[in-house]
């Protein structure tokens, strides 16, 4: 069984998720944006072995701690899609602009594309490319537990911003309606910020994509 724990990090309260395989106790961290020591303390408390880092996209609050954590523990960085290379290149500028500690640069060990899968222990998670908030944004879907880790594509009652460089509102709506909704109304999603919700609830009541 795949398990997860969501730990809000950074002044932006970004929902960083620790996901792990119950059988092997191997774990991945989705979007280690910062507060690395706190995340490692949770890994230790849970009795897990951290084996990799997964990125939905490369905004500072999601990716700011990735380079340091990867270097410290010699961990592979998986994702996002190559469309976010320019955001990775600009991490130092993002750090300065938003008042974060200087982010260590990194190169992903493996880029992701739509339809790829990633594996932690005995558990396989599906990857969907969902551009719009950023061009290289990906979502991690775990159908075995009806969960999706959607980064900043969709929120409870809202959607991701598209006013950043290379954001695209039409693309974002398409990503939500064509790639998230087919995962099923029952799927609970973990957004990049704020509380969890279900795709069914958002299809009904979200003012940006409700009824879509």
From TrEMBL:
CDD domains, per the entry: YcbL-like_MBL-fold
Highest taxon of the lineage: Bacteria
One Pfam family linked to the record: Lactamase_B
Gene3D superfamilies noted in UniProt: Ribonuclease Z/Hydroxyacylglutathione hydrolase-like (3.60.15.10)
Record-annotated Metallo-beta-lactamase domain positions: 13-193
SUPFAM superfamilies: Metallo-hydrolase/oxidoreductase
Keyword Metal-binding carried by entry: yes
Keywords on record: Hydrolase, Metal-binding, Zinc
GO molecular function: hydrolase activity; metal ion binding
Keyword Hydrolase listed: yes
Region named Disordered: 193-212
Cofactor(s) this protein cannot do without: Zn(2+)
Protein name (database record): Glyoxylase, beta-lactamase superfamily II
Annotated source species: Giesbergeria anulus
């Amino acid at each position: 069984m795949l398990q997860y724990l969501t730990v809000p990090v950074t002044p932006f309260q970004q929902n960083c998720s620790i996901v792990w395989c119950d059988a092997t106790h191997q774990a991945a961290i989705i979007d280690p944006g910062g507060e690395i020591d706190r995340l490692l303390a949770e890994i230790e408390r849970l009795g897990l072995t951290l084996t990799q880092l997964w990125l939905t996209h490369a905004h500072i609050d999601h990716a700011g701690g990735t380079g340091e954590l990867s270097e410290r523990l010699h961990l592979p960085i998986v994702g996002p899609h190559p469309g976010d290379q320019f955001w990775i290149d600009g991490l130092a500028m993002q750090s300065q602009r938003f008042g974060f500690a200087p982010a260590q640069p990194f190169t992903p060990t493996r880029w992701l594309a739509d339809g790829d899968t990633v594996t932690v222990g005995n558990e396989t998670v599906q990857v969907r490319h969902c551009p719009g908030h950023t061009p290289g944004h990906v979502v991690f879907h775990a159908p075995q537990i009806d969960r999706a880790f959607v980064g900043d594509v969709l929120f409870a009652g809202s959607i991701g911003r598209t006013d950043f460089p290379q954001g695209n509102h039409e693309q974002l709506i398409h990503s939500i309606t064509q790639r998230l909704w087919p995962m099923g109304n029952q799927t609970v999603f973990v957004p990049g910020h704020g509380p969890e919700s279900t795709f069914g609830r958002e299809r009904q009541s979200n003012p940006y994509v409700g009824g879509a």
